[in-house]
Write a structure and sequence with these properties.
Blueprint: E1 9-13, H1 17-29, E2 33-37, H2 43-49, E3 53-57, E4 59-60, E5 63-64, H3 65-74, E6 83-87, H4 92-99, E7 103-106, H5 111-122
Parallel strand pairs: 1-2, 1-3, 3-6, 6-7
Antiparallel strand pairs: 4-5
Length: 128
Amino acid sequence: MTDIVRKKKVLVIDDNAGILFIMQQALELKQYEVHLSETYPGIGYVEQIAPDLICLDVSLVGQDGRDVARELKADVRTRHIPIIILTAYPNAEDMAHEAGANDFLSKPFDLNILWAMAAKHTSPADGM
């Protein structure tokens, strides 16, 4: 009998096509299943794909990523999903904390840091 290992899913929400492309390529190199969106697709979509991690840009066209993060953290269906705020703003840590996000990644970002954060937030806390 063979064990089927489910790939961890990451939802990346960013309105910059270049960032989406880079993140998709980088995360797929580490065997993540990557879902991309240029806009916030809503709680229903997030619940449907059930990501293990959300990487969320602060500055979305027509939306504030901090509001999106607060909405996701306030909903019982999605509050357990770790969120990494992506931003080029210098006060990234404050923004992430204010939004209730689990972490932040400053743009431009180092791929090794992205990979380390993705692993940290998609690994079981007890190491099992």
